[in-house]
Design brief:
The chain has 462 residues and is mainly alpha-helical. The mean pLDDT is 81. Helix content is 81%, strand content 0%. The protein is globular. The longest helix has 33 residues.
């Protein structure tokens, strides 16, 4: 080692002129070699055409520009919306709508085509779908099954009431709008069931963020709200899985889908979860290696593929695998830390942009459409808020706590948009109804923070 160091020391002591001369000689030799290659070149072999750039390579700059546009717009509007006391996700959703046909598409179609060209949308859709799958896995990791068992009695009762009431009201509303807003060929059963499920969603991650922003996540209200939202999510996704099965097949096929889904859930809970728990005990205290990340991702994609094959959508498989991994395990925490920023910063804003491209406020052309949109917002709020408040009062909560819980459960956010995109992809809802329910998701989520702040202030002042 000393000989090597002395050699480098000697080299450093040599005059700079020698290094310059060697460098120039190398450049001259490279230029001479290039000229020799050109002299020997006698054209393509047998007149063969030169290789052409593939369409995928030509599309790459457009996709990169689209991703830059989506991320920058989402960050700017997400930060701006936080200044007025709203969660960042609202600004990110608005960013998607701004970039879509409702705003920028009307203001300047040429700019829209340049920033988000139609040719890049299939690639963005794949980014969006992958982002939603990984996001649902992270949502599953957030579930604390031990805490759910601790508050099982009151939590399940309140949560199921907050699902049942909007579900029933949603199916009744579906009967009134079926002829006007159902796509051709869609049965009333599929349409009404989907509208009912869409009305029943609560956004567990957004709710958790709002509680954290207000500093009440560790209070009794915060604990009950998180548990209710977790049970709500699990139940709502199971309902969605059933509705997807009904939509994609006949009644016998739907029953088979439900049976297969039940078997798969049982296997995941009965066999996979104990195996994961034993593996995590062995891995406790060790950092999350690249190999572990790879196998977890393989598990997420495999579970998603299985549920997609069963007929209950890939997102349910990702959510289920996340839910059976122990909430406080080292691997769960490490995986959230490693992947949450990538998913929330790039992939989910891409999903919002894709959703915004499908949301066209211009479809709601007449007063009747806007009245029906207002009815959807009112019915969704009445069902979710009313069902939660009545159940909470029966379980012994006072009026202020029950109202606060009702407002929190009325938060829909990103989870609602995921469900709506599933419905639009299946052809169960029309683009007009999709737009109305996107506005419903925005309105119910925007209303949460200011009303809850007022209720919490009243609670603290009494």
């Amino acid at each position: 080692m000393n000989e090597i160091e002395s050699t480098f020391a000697t080299a450093r002591q040599k005059p700079n002129g020698t290094s310059t001369a060697v460098y120039l000689l190398l450049i001259f030799m490279a230029f001479g070699l290039f000229q020799a290659i050109r002299f020997l070149d006698d054209g393509p072999v047998d007149g063969a055409a030169p290789a052409r750039v593939t369409p995928g390579a030509q599309e790459l700059p457009r996709v990169l520009l689209s991703l830059i546009t989506v991320i920058v717009t989402a960050r700017l509007l997400g930060t701006a919306i936080q200044w007025v006391g709203q969660p960042r996700v609202i600004g990110e959703v608005v960013a998607g709508i701004v970039l879509g046909p409702s705003f920028l598409g009307r203001l300047s179609p040429a700019v829209t085509e340049f920033l988000l060209p139609e040719s890049s949308m299939p690639t963005l859709e794949m980014f969006a779908q992958l982002g939603v799958v990984l996001y649902m896995f992270l949502v599953g990791l957030e579930l604390n099954s031990d805490q759910l068992r601790t508050h099982a009695g009151s939590t399940v009762a309140i949560s199921h009431a907050s699902i049942l009431a909007p579900f029933l009201l949603g199916t009744l509303l579906a009967a009134g709008v079926y002829r006007a807003y159902a796509p051709p060929g869609v049965t009333f059963t599929s349409f009404s069931l989907f509208v009912g499920v869409a009305m029943s969603i609560t956004a567990f991650p957004v709710l958790a963020r709002i509680l954290t922003d207000l500093g009440i996540e560790r209070t009794s209200l915060g604990a009950v709200a998180l548990n209710c939202a977790a049970v709500d999510d699990v139940t709502a996704w199971c309902l969605l899985a059933f509705v997807v099965g009904v939509t994609q097949s006949n009644l016998l096929g739907a029953i088979m889908t439900l049976v297969l889904a039940t078997v798969y859930i049982s296997l995941m809970i009965g066999l996979v979860r104990p195996g994961l728990t034993r593996w995590l005990r062995v891995a406790t205290g060790t950092p999350l290696s690249n190999e572990s990340v790879a196998w977890i991702l393989v598990g997420v994609l495999t579970s998603s593929l299985i549920t997609e094959a069963i007929g209950i959508h890939a997102i349910f498989g990702a959510f289920l695998l996340g839910a059976i991994i122990p909430h406080e395990s080292d691997i769960a925490r490490s995986f959230r830390h490693k992947w949450e920023d990538v998913v929330s910063t790039m992939l989910i804003p891409t999903f919002f942009a894709f959703t915004g491209a499908r949301t066209d406020l211009g479809i709601l052309s007449g007063p009747f459409d806007w009245i029906i949109c207002g009815v959807f917002i009112a019915v969704a709020t009445a069902g979710k808020f009313g069902g939660t408040v009545v159940a909470a009062r029966i379980m012994g909560l006072d009026w202020n706590a029950a109202a606060s819980l009702g407002i929190l459960m009325n938060t829909r956010g990103l989870m609602e948009l995921i469900v709506l995109n599933v419905g639009l992809d299946l052809g169960v809802i029309s683009p007009a109804l999709f737009t109305m329910m996107v506005l419903m998701a925005l309105a119910t989520t925007v209303a949460t923070s200011p009303i809850l702040r007022r209720l919490v202030h009243l609670e603290r002042s009494t």
